[in-house]
Design a protein that fits this description.
Blueprint (H helix, E strand, L loop, with lengths): L2 E6 L6 E6 L30 E7 L12 E3 L10 E3 L4 E4 L2 E11 L2 E5 L1 E3 L5 E2 L2 E8 L6 E9 L2 H4 L6 E6 L6 E9 L4 E9 L6 E8 L3 E6 L2 E7 L14 E9 L15 E13 L1
Parallel strand pairs: 5-8
Antiparallel strand pairs: 1-2, 3-20, 4-9, 6-7, 7-8, 7-20, 9-19, 10-19, 11-16, 11-20, 12-13, 12-19, 13-14, 14-15, 16-17, 17-18
Length: 279
């Protein structure tokens, strides 16, 4: 589990959440410098924001639409994950994308699952990005809905930035929202978790993102805000295009528990993914 440490800065009176764990679900196992970004001033009310839908995948076809998604395959060698990713583990059932983790030996790994991204096909800079998801619960399970900077192929991670809209590990009721970036001194991250009593049910996980901040929501409840105004703390990566990822990792440093094989096969259900722009 991640350890959440809260600290009041002397004189500044700003609550910082330093989330210490090995890494997120995409990359190096070596933690870098951790910098918490204080939330923006919430004492000043903003004008209400309305959004218009500009793209969605409702998963209403018979198979995953390759015009929207790329499949990443193999074991990616990150975070000590134990799965072999393959397209066969992503199917469409009753209007849902279903990513199934299985206990089977493929490519030298003991488990299989699927990981998809919209790189080169669907990107967003600002707006509202949301998905309705039913997360699988079990020791060693790590489903995620997240984003990476589209320039990752040229600047690498963490320089490209990462926005984790939803991560969940194991069988508890904690869900995580986090950003990762290069603060100028190496890897930095900021975020919080929130408790969902009905963790195994469908919920809408979303961010609302503009040139000042990123806000995380579960259903209609906001639970954390990150300040990116004026590239504070070298957050310029979050003013560029990002693409979307969906995956169900098995094992790894973040779950940090033995995998409960008795719960396999296990399924992550995604009812839809939608991207909106602010009016």
């Amino acid at each position: 589990m991640r350890k959440i440490i809260f600290k009041m800065l002397n004189g500044a009176g700003v609550l910082l959440a330093l989330m210490i764990f090995v890494s997120s679900c995409s990359k190096s196992n070596t933690p870098g410098k951790i910098t918490a970004t204080p939330p923006v001033d919430t004492t000043h009310k903003k004008d209400p924001v309305t959004y218009s839908l500009i793209w969605s995948d409702e998963f209403d076809s018979t198979a995953v639409k390759t015009k929207n998604w790329n499949f990443e395959t193999g074991n990616l060698g990150v975070n000590n994950e134990k799965e072999y990713y393959q397209a066969a583990n992503a199917t469409i059932e009753a209007g849902n994308l279903v990513i199934t983790a299985k206990r089977e030996n493929v490519g030298g790994q003991l488990y299989t699952s699927a990981r998809m991204n919209s790189q080169g096909k669907v990107t967003a800079t600002y707006g509202r990005i949301e998905a309705r998801i039913k997360a699988p619960l079990g020791a060693g399970f790590w489903p995620a809905f997240w984003m990476l900077g589209s320039n990752i192929t040229t600047v690498n991670w963490p320089n490209c930035g990462e926005i984790d809209i939803m991560e969940h590990v194991n069988a508890d009721n904690l869900f995580y929202g986090t950003i990762h970036w290069n603060s100028g001194g190496g890897h930095a991250q900021y975020g919080l978790n929130t408790t969902i009593a009905t963790a195994g049910d469908y919920h809408v996980y979303a961010i609302e993102w503009d040139n000042s901040e990123i806000r995380w929501y579960v259903d209609s409840t906001q639970y954390v805000t990150a300040n990116i105004a004026n590239n504070v703390n070298n957050t310029g990566a979050f003013h560029l295009p990002f693409f979307i990822l969906l995956n169900f990792a098995v094992g790894g440093d973040f779950p940090n528990q033995p995998i409960d094989d008795s719960l396999l096969p296990a399924k992550m259900y995604v009812d839809y993914v939608r991207v909106y722009k602010a009016n």
